[in-house]
Design brief:
435 residues, mainly beta, Porin, 20 strands
């Protein structure tokens, strides 16, 4: 009976699910240095091998080529809160923490082979990958005075075969998305223990919670590219919702207080949302290209609520009793607005810049420092240089100016009140070769 009381009263960790991988703050929104530099407004242009990601139909309108690039994403975040945010006297819960400077480097490889009007392509690239890490010494008040690790490391690799066909002024394309996800999470598990044996928990403490998981998901991209005139083209693309079936193991010594093991395997389905985009590309002169895109993500369908199934019965019972086996997101749909421009100063050198507006899909009720979600205004810049008729190099960089999220305390939702802020600096360098 006493064990059952502990089971019912044990306040287990705030279970952080990897669903948040797909939040706007954690995605590489611009695959390829050329599109990177143009604010990701590339649906109507799609004129290098990275079109396989943006608009596969564009593969049928270009020469056979290969493109390889590397991207480095550097998050710069902070979290500030005060006792008043939690409704406590001053000084009890004051926090002023900044993220550690981590680099998340990802490679991207694309190959496109054109045979008359048919193009066949293959890409291995990272559409999402980032993470956040805080120094546990700065967050002691959030872990009952014990230093714990606060960490997320997230990566998704897409293996994508594609085909496209050109019907003169119109082309169509399709790509298969085989997504492999790998996630690691570390955070405190705050509990209140019964240390005097009376069946009533009275001693707050903290344990380290950690989990790792991997999984596969499958989806497709269907797209079209229409050349209205020689200088104006319209591109559209549709990606299906993709469910990634994750398997992994979790560790939490707090579970031993409920009579269970410290570790348990688990399964969890996470999802990449349905995505729909349209873009217009115009060339007012031979040297100037101007692009505009609208890109819609249906977060409300894919990021609603997710359930974790633990193999161990105690883990399953405890998280089921507290509701921590189901993570409620209730995200909202979001539309990005993107603009890009390229100006060829010479036959060899092209200068590029861009801007995009990236609204946060997460509401104030569902914010965590390990999975930030902010509304971003993003500036991009870069260049391309043609070494010869076959080889070119490209560079792009962007800075995400994140807006502060001033979160109020909502006990029922388990959010983290205070001021959340995240900027991201990223750059990409690559080379393309025509054959």
């Amino acid at each position: 009976m006493k064990r059952m009381n502990k089971l019912a009263l044990l306040t287990v960790f705030l279970l952080i699910l990897t669903i948040n991988l797909f939040s706007n703050g954690l995605s590489l929104n611009s695959v390829g240095p050329k599109s990177f530099a143009m604010g990701g407004a590339f649906l109507g242009q799609a004129d290098d091998a990275t079109a396989l990601y943006w608009n596969p139909a564009g593969l049928a309108n270009q020469e056979s080529s290969a493109n390889i690039s590397f991207a480095d994403v550097i998050p710069i975040g902070s979290y500030k809160t005060s006792s008043e945010d939690f409704g406590y006297p001053a000084g009890m819960f004051d926090v002023d923490a900044k993220t550690k400077t981590n680099h998340f480097v990802s490679p991207n490889i694309f190959i496109n082979h054109r045979i008359n009007n048919l193009a066949l392509g293959f890409g291995v690239y990272v559409p999402a990958g980032l993470g956040t890490e805080y120094d546990g010494k700065d967050l002691l008040v959030l872990s009952n005075g014990k230093e714990q690790k606060w960490l997320t490391k997230i990566g998704v690799i897409n293996f994508s075969p594609a085909a496209a066909y050109n019907f003169n002024s119109f082309s169509i394309g399709i790509a298969m998305n085989i997504m492999y996800g790998s996630f690691e999470i570390k955070r405190p598990s705050n509990v209140t223990l019964d240390t005097d044996g009376d069946g009533i928990p009275e001693t707050p403490t903290s344990f380290q919670y950690s989990e790792t998981s991997t999984g596969l998901g499958y989806g497709i991209t269907i797209s079209g590219l229409f050349h209205i005139t020689k200088s104006i083209s319209l591109g559209t693309a549709f990606r299906t919702k993709t469910t990634v079936k994750m398997k992994g193991d979790a560790e939490n010594l707090a579970m031993t207080g409920a009579g269970g093991p410290a570790k348990s395997d688990f399964t969890r389905d996470v999802a990449w949302p349905m995505w729909l985009g349209a873009g217009l590309s115009a060339k007012p002169t031979d040297r100037l290209t101007i692009n505009a895109d609208f890109q819609f993500s249906q977060w409300s369908d894919s990021e609603d609520r997710f359930k974790t199934d633990f193999d161990n019965d105690v883990w399953s019972a405890v998280t089921g009793a507290t509701g921590d086996d189901t993570f409620v997101l209730e995200w909202e749909d979001a539309t990005q607005i993107r603009f890009g421009m390229e100006y060829k100063t010479t036959d060899k050198l092209a200068l590029r810049c861009g801007y995009y507006y990236d609204p946060a899909p997460a509401t104030d009720d569902r914010i965590s420092i390990l999975f930030p979600s902010s509304t971003n205004n993003v500036g991009t810049i870069g260049f391309g240089y043609k070494i010869n008729n076959k080889l070119n190099i490209d560079f792009g960089t962007e800075y995400l100016f994140g807006a502060d999220r001033n979160i109020k305390f909502v006990l029922a939702n388990g959010n983290m009140p205070g001021t959340h802020h995240l900027d991201v600096f990223a750059f990409s360098f690559g080379a393309g070769y025509k054959f």
